[in-house]
Structures are given as structure tokens and as C-alpha cells.
Amino acid sequence: MNVAIIGTGYVGLVTGASLALLGNTVKCHDIDQEKVNLLLKGRVPFFEPYLEPIVQEQVTNKRLLFSSNLSTCISDADFIFITVGTPTDQVSGAVNLEYVCKAATSIGKLLTPDKSPVIINKSTVPVGSHKIVQKMIEEGVYQSGNDSVHFAVASNPEFLREGSAIIDFFYPDRIVIGSENTEALARLELLYRPLLDQSFNPPPTIPPRPEGFSQVPLIKVDPISSELIKYASNAFLAMKISFINEIANISDRLGGNIHDISRGIGLDRRIGPHFLKSGLGWGGSCFGKDLKGLVFDANASGYNPRVLTAVLESNSLQRTVPILKLQSYLKSLRGKSIGILGLSFKPDTDDLRDAPSIEIIKKLIDLHAIVKVYDPVAMNHFRANFPSLPIKYANDEYDLVNSLDGLILVTEWDQFTHLDWKTVYDKMKHKVVVDGRNVLDKKGMEAIGFVYYGIGS
Ligand code: UDX
Fold first, then answer.
1. Looking at ligand 1, which residue's alpha carbon is closest to its atom 26?
2. Residue nearest to atom 18 of ligand 1 (CA)
3. 94, 106, 211, 335: which sits with the fewest CB atoms below 10 Å from its CB?
């Protein structure tokens, strides 16, 4: 089948490359010619495991094409996926649909009577956006004067985690499609058929089927429910993390062990073991944005969603926890040298969007601490994003810890757990470590002589 992808960001590129690997011809559009040139060479502008080899192979096969010409991309498309950005408006808190609307109108202008594509919104959008997309396409059609065209609108949210996006695409827990048009739903089902088929044989370029993976349920719903499923899924995951963080904070005060508590809770099949790791709070491009989007939509509908609002507040407060722990030992942080291990919002990415490190660093600076940081991949990105922050960038972990008064492990990069902690101990002035992700061995750290603080243990 012929597929067009509008917007080759993270979601668009993963979706386009994966659909090409499934045998479709995929044409990806982006307004950024430099990015298009890079992708035409099979190079991916961000790090995502497995993605670049797939892009390279499919570009060579000519099943994956890139262009800044929208007409080239959509002229013969059976499916047009809109995967452009939907940033949050900093002032109103509303989701900015400008790029989605522009894409929809431009598509509408180029539709022709010989094709009746399904136009699918994959960007995470406020509930009810499918109606706006429909209207904007109609507006484009009207402007083109071509009133004999046919199209259908659908919603198909993505559930791709950074760092696991290829695995999440090929082995999803479910595929959700929403439309008022039953034919559009049937056609989308056909597009996703290889993933729904239990005999699907994964190509060698992707990781093998995870253990225990079985039939993928296809959820066919109305568009509002589809849009709500996306928001609610991320809100629930964020809530689960904030919940365990709260239990960790209580455990800290009462003397429990959060590792055992999480395990004991997660073994209840109604709860499940995932997203029960306590730490410095969730971050990333999705959870905060989607929660705020859902709160905004709920408020606009006249409903005050108290649980969702509390999750946002709790996550923000969680980022102050390591500072309170340092203060309980060092008292004033004025003039104290504090090291930050890890800047990205989670390991294996240089993504800094809503990363807890940012708030923690700013708070330390406000308290007049001297801040030194190290991250194996995100430092250049951090420097570029926050050029005016008065912080020192270390060459490596051991350079970071020299003469420190306190160390906070913010991102659980694997290499941090394998440091020579005895050497770290010798190099630090005050031997206090806040393990913000509970990845270090508390007993081992205390045996070396550290004052060790975990989050809930
Ligand atoms: C998320 C969703 O998982 C994905 O389905 C969605 O479509 C995009 O947003 P992502 O932002 O890549 O994916 O990160 P994820 O792996 O879900 O982690 C989000 C945050 O939660 C990270 O900051 C992580 O450190 C934190 N987290 C996760 C915890 O603090 N504890 C946990 O137990 C799990």
C-alpha cells in the first residue's frame, strides 16, 4: 500500500520506516530540507536503537522516500499520517494545533478525485481534534476548488517509548484506531494486518518477539475515545509513578524498603509490576504535556480532574526531594560543591525535555550551591539549551566527583552503577550520595563509608 507521513520527527520516522519494513511504499514529508537530505542518505538525526539500519535498508530498497514536496508525498497515497509536533502553549497551557491544522489544510488543497485516502492523525492531540482536522482538510479542499474529492479521517494514537520505539511498534500491547467511518477502520485494519497476525515473522533487522508476546488486540472505537485512550494511558502511567514516589516518601519517614514494597504491590495482577520504580519523578516529552492537555480538556468541559492535577503537583515536588536530603546532612548548600550524575530525562537518550535534572540544577543554583554535572551523551545538548546556567561540565564521572560536598544520581545510566565507588569515596570531600533512581547497592555504599540516601529505602 502507499503511505504518506507528514512530519518526520520521532513518531513520523519510526512509523514510516516500520511501515516500509512491512512492505508498504512510504513517502515521508518534512519542511526541513536539511533533514530531508540527511534522511535520503539513510541517516537519522536522533538516536533510537534499530531505527537507522531500517531507514538505510528501506531507502536503498526504494520503499522509503523523503521529500520536502508535499504533492510528491501524497499524490498516490492510500493512507496519509499526520505526525507533526503539538507543543504546549506556554501561556495558556493549551495544546498548540497550528502545525496539525497547517498540515491538514495543505493536504486538503492537494487531494484529487482519483484517490480517497484515509487521513490519520497520529500526533497526540486534544480530545475532539479529529473534528478540527476534518474541517481543515475541507477548508483546503474548498480553497483548491476541487469539490469532488473523497477522504476519511481517523485517529491512531502512538504508544512509542523513546529507546524502545521499534519494539513498541512491532510488538504493541494494542493498536487503537478511531473513526466515524467504518470503511476507514477496515482499511486501517488491513494496513496493520501483519502486526495483528500471530504468524507474523519478524524481519531480521528488528529484535525478536519478546517472551510472552501474544496476539495484538485491535481496538476499533469512535475518534473521541481513541484520543482519550492516548491521554488516559499516559496519565495513568504518570500517576502510577507518582503514586509509588509518594509511597517511597512515606517509606522514607517510616523506615521501609521501597524495593520490597514495589515488588509486594506489583505482584498483585490487578496492579502489575511496571512503572513502580520510585525516583525523582517522571519527565520526557509526553507525560507532562499529555497530563496538562487532559486537565485543560477536562476544565474546558466544566470538570475539575483532582487526581490528574495532584499527579502534576506531586511530580513537581518530587524534584525537590534530593535537595531536602542533601540539606538534612549538609545543612546550608551555600558555597557547597554539588555533583549531578545524569542530565537526560531517562537513560539511553540525550532528550532533555522536562528532565528532572533541569529543575534540580536551577534549585541548587538558587540555593547558591556550586553545580558540576556529567552525562555521557546529553551535555552538549544541555550546554546549547541552557547556555547561561552557571555550571561546570565534567570530563567524566571521576572528574565530576573531585572534592564534591554531595552527589545526586539523577539519571540511571547503566555505567553509573558500575563506577569504582571506592575511588569516588576517596575523591569526594563530604561523602554523601543521593541515589535518585535507587540503582546503587545501599549496603555496599554504606560499607564503603558513604552517607547514602535512596528514594524510599
Ligand atoms: C512515554 C510512554 O511510555 C509512551 O507510551 C508514550 O507514547 C510516550 O511517552 P517515554 O516518554 O519515552 O514514553 O518514557 P517512559 O519510558 O515511559 O518513561 C517516562 C518517565 O517515567 C521517565 O522519566 C522515567 O524515568 C520515568 N519512570 C518510568 C519512573 O520514574 N519510574 C518507572 O517505574 C518508570
1. 282
2. 282
3. 211
Calculate the dihedral angle through the C-alpha atoms of 71, 74, 75, 77, rounding to the nearest 10 degrees: 170
Mutate to test the pocket of ligand 1, among 275, 290, 311 (most ligand atoms within 8 A of CB): 275
pTM reported for the whole predicted model: 0.95
Per-residue pLDDT tens digits for 113-167? 999 999 999 998 999 999 999 999 999 999 999 889 999 999 999 999 999 999 9
- Residue 407 has which C-alpha cell? 552527589
Ligand 1 centroid to residue 346 C-alpha, Å? 8
How far, in Å, is the centroid of ligand 1 from the Cα of 290? Answer: 12
Residue to mutate (ligand 1; options 122, 159, 161; most atoms within 8 A of CB): 161
Atom 30 in ligand 1: residue holding the nearest Cα:
282
Q: How far apart are CA 344 and CA 356, in angstroms?
A: 8
Q: Is the confidence metric ipTM above 0.90 for this complex?
A: yes
- The domain that holds 302 is classified in CATH as 1.10.1040.10
Within this chain, do residues 156 and 289 fall inside the same structural domain, yes or no? no
73 is catalytic: no
8 A C-beta contact, residue 196 and residue 216: yes
In a domain, 225, yes or no: no
Supply 449's cell numbers: 563509608
**Number of domains, the chain:** 3
| Same domain flag for 271 and 345 | no
| Dist. CA 48 → ligand 1 center (Å) | 15
446/356 same-domain check? yes
